C-alpha cells in the first residue's frame, strides 16, 4: 500500500476528541521521541497524532536499553515495557517489564504478555498510545500520520475503532469481587444499569494538610489527587444519600453539577476535563485491583458501581 492509502487507513481512526489518549498532565510532544525503523510492521500513535514506527520489537521507557521509544515523563520507568511480534503465533504482544506504574491495554492491567490488535489503546504509566497495524504487512518507511501535521488541541485526537465493527466487546471488571460486564471500549457513556449493586467496605481518607487523599478498602489503599478525591467523595455521599431510590437510578450526579462543585485546576472546566478525570480515576482503581467502579450513563451523569459501606478502621 502506498503512503496515500496508508494515510486513509490511519485517518479512519481519527476522532473528534483526544481524551482516550490524554493522560499525563502537562506532557508535551517533545517528551516522546523514537528512532527511525527501516521496515515498519506496526506503529504506536501518540496523542498528537504522530506515528512511532515499530520493526519486530521495540522497547519503551525513559531510558530503554535498546533503541526504542523514549518517554520522558514521571510515570514511565527506565525500562517500562516492550512491544514485539511473536513469529510462532503470528501476532503482536506487549509485555510490562516490572514497571512502577504499570501498562494497560484497553484499561486492562498487563500482568503477562498481552495480545495487541490494531486499534487497541495502550497506556504506559499515564501516557497513552493507539496501536496500529497496516493491512498489507508494512508501512512505507517514509509514512507518517496525516494527523501529525495538524494543530491538535488536548480535546482532539484518536481513538480505537468501534468494537461493533468486528462484533466484539471488551470485558471490564466491575468491582472488588471481580465481576465482569460487557462495555463498549468506544463509548464515554457506558449506559449500563447495574441492579443488585455489589457492596464494598471503603472509606475516603483526607490528610489534614489537604492536597489529595486515599481510598481505602479492607486490603487496598489508592492514592488520589485533590480533584480525584473530591470526585469519589461526591459520588460516595450521593450513593449513600439516595438509599431509598431504585438501584437503577440511584446515586447519579449530572456532569454540570460535577463541573460546578469539583476543585478544578482550570478556571473554566469543560466536559472534556471531566471525562479525562473519570478515565484517570478508573485507571487508578483498575491498577489497584478494584476494577471500574465508576459508571456513566448518558442523560444521568456518573455514579459509583458499588454500594459503599464503612470499612473497619482496625
TrEMBL record:
<keyword id="KW-0238">DNA-binding</keyword>
<dbReference type="InterPro" id="IPR050923">
    <property type="entry name" value="Cell_Proc_Reg/RNA_Proc"/>
</dbReference>
<dbReference type="InterPro" id="IPR000253">
    <property type="entry name" value="FHA_dom"/>
</dbReference>
<feature type="domain" description="FHA">
    <location>
        <begin position="58"/>
        <end position="110"/>
    </location>
</feature>
<protein>
    <submittedName>
        <fullName>FHA domain containing protein</fullName>
    </submittedName>
</protein>
<dbReference type="InterPro" id="IPR001867">
    <property type="entry name" value="OmpR/PhoB-type_DNA-bd"/>
</dbReference>
<dbReference type="Pfam" id="PF00498">
    <property type="entry name" value="FHA"/>
</dbReference>
<dbReference type="GO" id="GO:0000160">
    <property type="term" value="P:phosphorelay signal transduction system"/>
</dbReference>
<feature type="region of interest" description="Disordered">
    <location>
        <begin position="159"/>
        <end position="190"/>
    </location>
</feature>
<dbReference type="GO" id="GO:0006355">
    <property type="term" value="P:regulation of DNA-templated transcription"/>
</dbReference>
<dbReference type="InterPro" id="IPR036388">
    <property type="entry name" value="WH-like_DNA-bd_sf"/>
</dbReference>
<dbReference type="InterPro" id="IPR008984">
    <property type="entry name" value="SMAD_FHA_dom_sf"/>
</dbReference>
<dbReference type="InterPro" id="IPR016032">
    <property type="entry name" value="Sig_transdc_resp-reg_C-effctor"/>
</dbReference>
<dbReference type="GO" id="GO:0003677">
    <property type="term" value="F:DNA binding"/>
</dbReference>
Amino acid at each position: 500500500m502506498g503512503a496515500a492509502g496508508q494515510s486513509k487507513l490511519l485517518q479512519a481512526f481519527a476522532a473528534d476528541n483526544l481524551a482516550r489518549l490524554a493522560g499525563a498532565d502537562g506532557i508535551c510532544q517533545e517528551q516522546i521521541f523514537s528512532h527511525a525503523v527501516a521496515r515498519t510492521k506496526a506503529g504506536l500513535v501518540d496523542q498528537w497524532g504522530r506515528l512511532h514506527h515499530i520493526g519486530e520489537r521495540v522497547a519503551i521507557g525513559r531510558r530503554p536499553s535498546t533503541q526504542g521509544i523514549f518517554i520522558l515523563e514521571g510515570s514511565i520507568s527506565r525500562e517500562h515495557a516492550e512491544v514485539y511480534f511473536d513469529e510462532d503465533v503470528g501476532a503482536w504482544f506487549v509485555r510490562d517489564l516490572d514497571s512502577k506504574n504499570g501498562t494497560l491495554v484497553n484499561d486492562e492491567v498487563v500482568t503477562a504478555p498481552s495480545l495487541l490488535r490494531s486499534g487497541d489503546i495502550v497506556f504506559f504509566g499515564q501516557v497513552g498510545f493507539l496501536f496500529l497495524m497496516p493491512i498489507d504487512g508494512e508501512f512505507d518507511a517514509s509514512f507518517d500520520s496525516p494527523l501529525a501535521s495538524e494543530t491538535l488541541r488536548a480535546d482532539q485526537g484518536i481513538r480505537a475503532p468501534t468494537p461493533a465493527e468486528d462484533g466484539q466487546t471488551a470485558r471490564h471488571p466491575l468491582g472488588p469481587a471481580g465481576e465482569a460486564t460487557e462495555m463498549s471500549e468506544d463509548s464515554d457513556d457506558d449506559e449500563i444499569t447495574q441492579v443488585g449493586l455489589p457492596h464494598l467496605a471503603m472509606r475516603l481518607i483526607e490528610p489534614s494538610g489537604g492536597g489529595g487523599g486515599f481510598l481505602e478498602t479492607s486490603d487496598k489503599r489508592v492514592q488520589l489527587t485533590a480533584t480525584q478525591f473530591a470526585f469519589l467523595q461526591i459520588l460516595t455521599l450521593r450513593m449513600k444519600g439516595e438509599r431509598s431510590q431504585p438501584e437503577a437510578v440511584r446515586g447519579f450526579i449530572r456532569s454540570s453539577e460535577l463541573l460546578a462543585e469539583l476543585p478544578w485546576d482550570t478556571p473554566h472546566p469543560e466536559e472534556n476535563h471531566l471525562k479525562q478525570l473519570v478515565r484517570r480515576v478508573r485507571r487508578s482503581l483498575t491498577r489497584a485491583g478494584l476494577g471500574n467502579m465508576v459508571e456513566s450513563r448518558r442523560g444521568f451523569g456518573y455514579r459509583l458501581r458499588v454500594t459503599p459501606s464503612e470499612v473497619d478502621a482496625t
